Structure formats: C-alpha cells, structure tokens
Amino acid sequence: MSQMVVFGASGRTGRHVCELAAGAGWTVTAAVRRLEGAAPAPDHAARLAADVLDPASVGAVLAAAKPDVVISAIGGGDIRVDDEGVRNIADACVVAGVRRVIVVTSLGCGASRTYASERLLAAIGEVLAAKTRAETHLTALPLEWTVVRPGGLIDGEPNGAGALFEDDRVHGRITCRDLAALLVALARDDDAIGMVLSAVDEASLSGPNDPVRYRVRGEAA
Length: 221
Description:
By secondary structure, the chain is of the alpha/beta class. The chain has one domain (3-214): NAD(P)-binding Rossmann-like Domain (Rossmann fold), CATH 3.40.50. It has five helices and eleven strands. The longest helix is centred in the middle third of the chain and has 22 residues, at 118-139. The protein starts with a strand and ends in a 7-residue tail after the last strand. The relative contact order is 0.14. InterPro entries: NAD(P)-bd_dom (IPR016040), NAD(P)-bd_dom_sf (IPR036291).
C-alpha cells in the first residue's frame, strides 16, 4: 500500500501525520477544509479541499486520490464534525471501495467513559458523546477500521514514549506528534484491524497496575 489520505491535515495532529507518512514512503493527500491559509503540505504531499460535513466533497477527494488508507484526525470547533464528519468519511470510504480506515476519537468515548473523570465529562461530555456516535457508526460498516482514543493532547516536543493499549482504563497525555507516529505505524499493521486502542504517553500513564499494551507490528517488546 502506498496512497494515503489524511482528513484534518491542517490540524494539530493531522499535519504531523502528513509529514511522518510522507517520510515513511507514503504518497500523501492532505485533505483540508480550505486551501487558502492551510499549512503547507510536506514534500511530495498534495492538498485537496474537503468539507467533511459535505459528503460529496469527501467523496470527490477519495475519487481523486484513490487511497489505500484513510486517516481521520478531524475534530474541534463544530461538534458536528466529531459526529457527522467522521460518519461522512466512513460512508464515503464504503462507496469508494477504500477498506482501511483509522479514526482518532478520544479517551472518554464508548466503554472508556466509565473510567473518565467527572471533570472531563463536565467539560467535554457532549463532544465525547458525538465522537461515540461516530465510533458506533464506523464500527458497524464493512471496513477494516481501527479506532484510536488518545488521552489529553499536548503540543511540544515528542519524546517517543507514545504507546497503545487494549485497555479502556488507562489515563494520561500524549503529544500530537507522538500520536501521529502511532497512527502512521498502524497504517501498515493489519493486526490492528477491528480494534479500539487507547493512546497515552507511557511517562504520564495512570490507571490500572496491569494495563494491556498493544504493540504495533514490528515494535520491539
């Protein structure tokens, strides 16, 4: 596989996904809401305009790029993006025949809501509910999906300690770039198909004493 489309490519995580994927040999199409004012695409990456709230716009990007893998790093601002936007991307992938889809949501979605703090739920409970609806829609479709739920996203220098867990109980933070590195690695990991994974920096990890670690294919034990 070599063709990748990144939705949310001008965002905090998406721009790092584009850069790291291009560096890893992918031909990247950066899907951004507006071409004007968007961050420059990395070397060898194209940019296409896509409003994720417009299914036709999303479908046009997939038809043009013909990706092997789609990564959705959309979110923030309009709560409809967290729900309808992800659903539109997933539906368009089905129509276009794109099988592999990786979607970023958040800790506090789905079953992990049980372990979320009251403070988090009070602050972004509606956002988490919207992302959960999107997850439910995605996982019911005939796609080779992976859902990644990061902890608190922070900007700044990565430390390479980002890790994935098959565990709803974990808490912590992760830099946007470290999260992006995990997403790019998952794009070539078929073992992660059909999995919901938590993403946290191991240095900030809290929760259970026995978290279930997921190792991306090829990662050293």
